[in-house]
Amino acid sequence: MAECHPVGYQWVMEAKRRGAKVFHIDPRFTRTSATVDTYVPIRAGSDIAFLGGIVNYILENELDFREYVVAYTNAATIVSDDFQDTEDLDGLFSGYDPETGTYDPTSWQYDGHLPHGQMNDTPVQRETAAALQHESHGPPIPPDAPRDETLQNPRCVYQLLKRHYSRYTPEVVERVCGIPREKFEEVARAWTENSGRERTTTLVYSVGWTQHSVGVQYIRTGAIIQLLLGNVGRPGGGVLALRGHASIQGSTDIPTLFNLLPGYLPMPHHANHPTFDDWVGSIAHPSQKGFWGNARAYAASLLKAYWGDAATPENDFCYGYMPRLTGDHGTYQQVLSMIDGKIKGYFLLGQNPAVGSAHGRAQRLGMANLDWLVVRDLFLIESATFWKNSPEVETGEIVPEECRTEVFFMPAASHVEKEGTFTQTQRLLQWREKAVEPPGDARSELWFFYHLGRRIREKLAGSTLRRDRALLDLAWDYPLHGPEQEPDAEAVLREINGYDVATGRPVSHFTELKDDGSTVGGCWIYSGVFADGVNQAARRKPHTEQSWVAPEWGWAWPANRRILYNRASADPEGRPWSERKAYISWDPDKGEWTGPDVPDFERTKAPSYRPPEGATGVAALAGNDPFIMQGDGKGWLYVPSGLVDGPMPTHYEPAESPVRNPLYGQQANPTRKVYRRPENPINPSPPEPHSDVFPYIFTVARLTEHHTAGGMSRMLRYLSELQPEMFVEVSPELAAERGLEHLGWAHVITARAAVEARVMVTDRMAPLRIEDRVIHQVWLPYHWGSEGYSTGESANDLFGITLDPNTLIQESKVGTCDVRPGRRPRGPAYLEYIVDYGRRAGLTPDHHPPIVTTDAVNAARGNAKRSTKKED
Amino acid sequence: MVSAESLFGPIDPAPDAGYVDAPPRMGFFTDTSVCIGCKACEVACKEWNLVPDHGLDLLGMSYDNTGALTANSWRHVAFIEQPRPLGAESPALAGTATGPSGSAHLAERASTPPGVPNTDPGLPPAPHPGPAAAMAASPEFLGMPGTDLPGRQERAGQRTDLRWLMMSDVCKHCTHAACLDVCPTGSLFRTEFGTVVVQEDICNGCGYCISACPYGVIDQRKGDGRAWKCTLCYDRLRDNRVPACAQACPTESIQYGPLDELRERAQRRVERLHADGVPEARLYGHDENDGVGGDGAFFLLLDEPEVYGLPPDPIVTTRDLPDMWRRAGLAALAMAGAAVAAFVGRRSA
Amino acid sequence: MGVRTWIEGWPVYRQLTGTDPLGRGAAAMSARSERLQPRTETADSMARSVCPYCAVGCGQRVYVKDGRISQIEGDPDSPISRGRLCPKGSASKNLVTSELRQTTVLYRRPYATDWEELDLDTAMDMIADRYLAARDATWEDVDDEGRPLNRTLGISSLGGATLDNEENYLIKKLFTASGALQIENQARI
């Protein structure tokens, strides 16, 4: 956090000054480690084993915040008799189908339930990263499920959890993660002792956590701990994601992602969502509790925002215009399609995949096989110059005179040359004022896309083709300003907020959105950012002039709530859990919820409210159901529906690991998304032979002095000089073992690439004892490429493409490698060198690592058949 | 002897330099115990003061690629990696493995002699023998700053502690500033805030100040010839603004304010750290009775000053100047007297 | 300048007649120092902005003089950052004014070995033509079973996460209406 979010880290330092104890768990000893109370080294890729150890510590010692857990989580809910755990199936859950590499989740459901809609169509769920929809709301499930609030029923979630994590003992943590037992117990003790009525503990992760083949489950494990300890919805608690870019949160809320529409609505699937009703019906369970029950209004208002007057209830709001998914259309699939020549044109909008994405070589070869490429950026980044300045030009794989890709470099406006909102990491929208005009031909994306759309629509005017109706009917009228005809960003924000069609009055809350076509709403979770016709994101009341929650600075979705699910900061009766930790509570005299934040609950719904029989939607939420976006109003310790890889996080080894999974026969995530192609070889891992050709673990990360793929830092003198060269950090022991000299050259090798770097020998890299062996980890910053003041090789070239099955995010925080002194070979000799490594590792072109590595697969499958039968 | 116009001892420098109704003396207190080494101070300083870049040079001194305070770096963050504990914090590397990697089998493969064509599946190539041999033989292999020898096997196996010290260094704005005393052009002057500033419109690049500075701070800029250093953002101070580095500092490691308040705050911070089990915390440059009459920019350190590259006992290089002038004057008088006497003597003779 | 003023401006005169006989302070102040003001004070305007690097969302104040950025520093009013900035945030002016910044359109013809200049309007028109051509060539109306697809898989996009919400909104809206669903973002990476 000190490395990549230094200004956010001021609050950690301030908390520390006031007596907070701070732990840092990381494979690397970083600038964060230097300033915390306890640094805990860990083997990259073993986080679930560590966190699972904490879950086990809590449950074995009954240290959970019982009153919170019983009332607010699904700990008491009873799960189907058919469910079989990884304890029973050597690392698999029931329902596994080795043909598709996915689960039938029927047996995972709450007792008496069946998966809703397409929730059991897990191959499609995986291809379309459907789990991403749940960033704003839980998966659709019925509201009622049998519960045992004594938590004694062996099929209740609490008992299942206890059994699942029983083998995650401190000894196992030590063996799997390399964390000494005393260190582990120090963390476990501190975390549990500092949670409960009087105290809360915060879990902070950075989004490197998402870049694993089990990334979602990492975060789930953290959430389980925080729910068990009562640290969710309360001040000083939570699971805080430190996102790495100015508006990466905004980019998922209003997604430029293939599988999502604004507000986490899914892109329609050709088979599952043929009609508007099918589409809306699939995303919310008809009887489910909570605000997601209004999904139809959000969907109708979005389509109304897209197609304006043309969108009517009679034509299902032009739902028929929507393009349909047929499977995986994610960025890595796109790159492979480029290599296959299926994609003609590619836009890069302030993004540098030649450096920033996994498997840089595949990225560059893909770009070299397009008809045209549009790069919009401030600088001539590597993705704009790959055709003349890339490692593949050196090896002869890309020859400029033979590369047909037409490249347009379109200069972009910087953050001070345009106005608009970023959504930062805690969901806060902040409006930026424009300071100056952009120089030369530089323009905003708003300008580029508005005018591209205008030109396209002009060229299509008069077209009678059916396919062109969606473009011609598009609501594409925005006020334009100035000599450059810049679209009015506030007008766009107003459309995102939503308004009443008849009067034009902006809605103040998402509850005002309608499903009858009378409202427009471009992104329902942002409704309220223009409440009262005022740009709430532009509010700048100094923090010194308002409460510590600072509700009048910017605007947070949803409804300006700063802590989500903050109803949980009060006990079931609505009283603060303790005076120390008071936040939102029920004021019986006024008959409403009060506190320094906007209550994340219906303001006047009493804690004693119980829904009548058969109630649905918001009315079905009881006065003690704080998790108002969940189908059952509860925080989920166990996920019966919505995740592809299992209802409870389980330790799997990374796709590339030097060790055999010490916990289960199943080595790696059995549902991970793989691309079996010759350009994507994966280093062998046990139980396969030859994993010792790549004996070391490597990870990549960022430095304070640089930014991501370097496009915004290597081009600056003042940042380049602070970290002027690509380097690799190694321990003194590894330096001795491999003959590496401090400040000398070394290169790191995988089956994909060899990347050279200057050597930094440092005690901060500590070898770990894993099982009976000592394992070295190295790390490299991934900021460098061939352009800018400071140049170097790109660490992300080392990775292959293996994805998390829930999000289709690549595993690019851990892999195996060899490290050798000196610079790597150049030209054709370099290609031979990589091929030779692959050959010694047994990687023939048709070799693919096995997905299933346990014989229990037959038992798991048998279970799947049984449950399918039952469903019939 | 302490008096007005003194070149030694505790004084309030602004009134001493002729400012009537001077504002309180302003300065920096840099608390290295909360420094996270982000270098925001270095960049914010350069952006505000339009300081040129210092160039691309990987120094290998941990994360320090600035190296020193120079004409082109008015803030410099030092990084020191040490195999010792940090105060009361848990030993960073306690219980972790040390020694060579993998199993005996792996080690054997790693040591395959060069020239063996071990290209069978499963076999790694032979390592390059050069650096490994050099490291084994040479006592001069230095890792990060420090005198320890990373990679030396005898230390492996005992490594449990590690601390990483970071410290943002800056011009000390001495109470008795030798640079100012020796400046023949009046370019270096004492501001009303008690700080020491080079006036770029006056400096002629004579360089006397550079050898005079007991901290090695002030420096001549190549191609420009003039001397440059931290101004404590004199222009910002005149508008009641915080200096650029202190404003940017994320963790309040760099604190700006009236020097008296800062000294009190620093004293409390040291006491607090001592109470919290960090006995090594100490102040540097806060003492009015030290060799420079105390610094306008002082520090809380977690080790000896030398570890951070600071002189342990700085003395204003012009300390003995008045005395020397006095003696020189006496000598001159004596000479003159002798001459007169000689003349008088000759006349009378 | 009168003789008297001229004499009074002479440092030695000030030194001998003023309170600073050693000439190390008030008497040594140069004309430039005398007039010194921070450029934040002399700026023509100041915009309230947000740092474009990580997602902490630190407040920035952007000072403008003569149509150019003269300073970017932390906004002390922000409850998030309280006026502080990291090295990247502190280097924001460097980002905007870097001499490496490319401010004109460049075009690389197929099989060319170097860039050439291109007029912005022409470039926009060429991109629009190529967009429509790629869409036409790869359009899919329905799947094998006659269910609607309404799409092209011939166009891709990958955006960074320094795009504004408003920009992302228009990008998604235009691409969706064109049937170009292969839009991705750093958020996937």
From TrEMBL, chain A:
Residues of the Molybdopterin dinucleotide-binding domain: 699-813
Cited SUPFAM superfamilies: ADC-like, Formate dehydrogenase/DMSO reductase, domains 1-3
Domain Molybdopterin oxidoreductase: start-end pairs: 2-380, 410-452
Biological process annotations from GO: anaerobic respiration
Biased segments, Basic residues type: 863-872
GO MF terms, alphabetically ordered: 4 iron, 4 sulfur cluster binding; electron transfer activity; molybdenum ion binding; molybdopterin cofactor binding; oxidoreductase activity
InterPro entries (UniProt xref): Asp_de-COase-like_dom_sf, Formate_DH_Act, MoPterin_dinucl-bd_dom, Mopterin_OxRdtase
Domain of life: Bacteria
CDD domains documented for this protein: MopB_CT_Formate-Dh-Na-like
Disordered as annotated region, ranges: 127-150, 845-872
Required cofactor(s): [4Fe-4S] cluster
4Fe-4S as UniProt keyword: yes
Keyword Cytoplasm: no
Main location: other
Compartment annotation: Cell envelope
Keywords: 4Fe-4S, Iron, Iron-sulfur, Metal-binding, Oxidoreductase
GO cellular component, one term: cell envelope
Membership in a protein family: Belongs to the prokaryotic molybdopterin-containing oxidoreductase family.
Entry-linked PANTHER family: FORMATE DEHYDROGENASE-O MAJOR SUBUNIT (PTHR43598:SF1), TUNGSTEN-CONTAINING FORMYLMETHANOFURAN DEHYDROGENASE 2 SUBUNIT B (PTHR43598)
The protein's name: Formate dehydrogenase major subunit
Automatic annotation (TrEMBL), chain B:
UniProt: [4Fe-4S] cluster 4 binding residues: C183, C203, C206, C209
GO molecular function terms listed in the Swiss-Prot or TrEMBL record: 4 iron, 4 sulfur cluster binding; metal ion binding
Annotated stretches, region: Disordered: 88-133
Record PROSITE patterns: 4FE4S_FER_1 (PS00198), 4FE4S_FER_2 (PS51379)
Record-listed [4Fe-4S] cluster 3 binding positions: C171, C174, C179, C213
Keywords associated with the record: 4Fe-4S, Iron, Iron-sulfur, Membrane, Metal-binding, Repeat, Transmembrane, Transmembrane helix
The keyword ATP-binding appears for this protein: no
InterPro entries: 4Fe4S_Fe-S-bd, 4Fe4S_Fe_S_CS, FDH_Electron_Transfer_Unit, Formate_DH_Fe-S_su
Cofactor descriptive note: Binds 4 [4Fe-4S] clusters per subunit.
GO-annotated cellular components: cell envelope
Binding site for [4Fe-4S] cluster 2: C45, C230, C233, C245
PANTHER family, per database record: FORMATE DEHYDROGENASE, NITRATE-INDUCIBLE, IRON-SULFUR SUBUNIT
Protein name in UniProt: Formate dehydrogenase iron-sulfur subunit
Automatic annotation (TrEMBL), chain C:
Main subcellular location: other
SMART domains listed in its UniProt record: Molybdop_Fe4S4
Domain of life: Bacteria
GO terms of biological process kind: anaerobic respiration
InterPro entries documented for this protein: Mopterin_OxRdtase_4Fe-4S_dom (IPR006963)
GO molecular function: 4 iron, 4 sulfur cluster binding; electron transfer activity; molybdenum ion binding; oxidoreductase activity
Keyword Isomerase tagged: no
Record domain 4Fe-4S Mo/W bis-MGD-type: where: 44-100
Keywords: 4Fe-4S, Iron, Iron-sulfur, Metal-binding, Oxidoreductase
Localization: Cell envelope
Cofactor: [4Fe-4S] cluster
Cellular component per GO, a single term: cell envelope
Residues in coiled coil: none
Family of this protein: Belongs to the prokaryotic molybdopterin-containing oxidoreductase family.
Protein name in UniProt: Formate dehydrogenase major subunit
Species of origin: Micromonospora pattaloongensis
